[in-house]
Amino acid sequence: MTFVRTYVEGIGASILGLLAGLGRFSQFMGTVFFWGAHPPMRIKLLMDQMYFIGNKSLFIVGLTSLFSGAVFALQMYLGIKAINMDSIVGPVVAISLAKELAPVFAGLVVAGRCGSAMAAQIGSMKVTEQLDALEVMGINPHQYLAVPRVIGATLSMPLLCGIFMLVGNFGSWLVGVHVLGIDEVMYFQKLSDFMRLGHVAEGLIKAGAFGFLIGMIGTYHGFEVRGGAEGVGKGTNLAVVWGMVTVLVSDYFISSFLAKIL
To answer: Taking the model in full, what pTM does it have?
Structure first.
């Protein structure tokens, strides 16, 4: 009985801890929204964050998208060549990239690269009392640090997603036409027959939502850092883990919603 009681109490404590964390995150999100709607609008800080999140992520996003499109085209060809339908490799890869692969993979890359950096930067400032110094100077830390990062991630992610789609389709065309021998005319004909603007719009909307969530989670865990350098490491790890998990989980719900309106 003692073991059962301890087990149940542990489950209850975990649930209460999760609910408390969700409450703190919701409060943090409300604070960011509040200060984001108040001047001054720090355009230079926003541009710096868009440069860091967008431009500095181009190489890894481009490399990931090139080989994602290439390997997906290869696997599709191997799966359908037995029924002589290799001409649909192009549209299947393009639609998959637009609706799922581009926003999700770009989100995972940005969560790992930029979400961790946000948490580490803000967490380091917190443990060295630089956030307190900002408040002494009359600068709200949420407006100065969180708002530019959240907006920057929200605006940069659709751009990275669009580049992912473009480069991924190039990789698919390269492998499909020049390696696997698919007829190039049929490849593009089928692509124009099946591809729709709504597919691209769905991916870009998802990417913007993922960028918003990654920015919120990364900055939240930075502000939540406790306990010096060890706390910074823990906060950075949590930002990456929860950022990636949130991208994958929210993808289903966003997809279900967009399927009804697009």
So the answer is: 0.93
